[in-house]
Design brief:
The chain is α+β, with helices and mostly antiparallel strands. 32% of the residues lie in helices and 33% in strands. It folds into 2 domains: 31 residues, no CATH class; 109 residues, GMP Synthetase, Chain A, domain 3 (2-Layer Sandwich). The protein is built from 4 helices and 6 strands, in the order βββαββααβα. This is OsmC family protein.
Length: 152
């Protein structure tokens, strides 16, 4: 895996990050640190990436478990150390999973597997941060199932 992060100029603290897969994203610093608040902070990107990594796993595991999952959202809240380096010290992942007849034990198992075996990002961050996980299941009767769209 490769990436390039390039400072965009002499004023401000905006950086352009380009991934090896050909995608780009801006990052910026807080105004009190010379940034202009034009884009997410680098540590916010770390948190976003961790949420994406874990949500990806949960959806994949639930699909493989033949669960009728229709949506997955993860809300993250994090605390950082007061002094440098300001590493994450606590991160809570709250999953909101929508579907039909989702089994709570399988949702819980998917989250556990993600955080103990598959999500590289959360496993790395676990070295400095206390990780907690909560979830809720919302029965989704309105949204058509992926399976219903393909049946004939």
């Amino acid at each position: 895996m490769e990436a390039t992060v390039r400072w965009t100029g002499l004023s401000g603290m905006t950086f352009l990050a380009e991934t090896g897969s050909g995608h780009a994203v801006l990052m910026d610093g807080a105004p009190d640190g010379g940034g202009r608040n034009l884009a997410p902070r680098p540590m916010e990107m770390v948190l976003l990436g961790t949420g994406g990594c874990s949500a990806y796993d949960v959806v994949l595991i639930l699909r493989k478990s033949k669960q009728d999952i229709r949506a997955c959202e993860v809300k993250l809240s994090a605390e950082r150390a007061e002094v440098e380096p300001k590493v994450f010290t606590k991160i809570n992942f709250h999953f909101i999973v929508r579907g039909r007849d989702l089994k709570p034990n399988l949702v819980e198992r998917a989250i556990k597997l993600s955080h103990e075996k598959y999500c590289s990002a959360s496993i790395m961050l676990e070295k400095t941060a206390e990780m907690t996980h909560t979830f809720e299941i919302i029965e989704d009767l309105d949204m058509p199932s992926e399976h219903a769209l393909t049946k004939d």
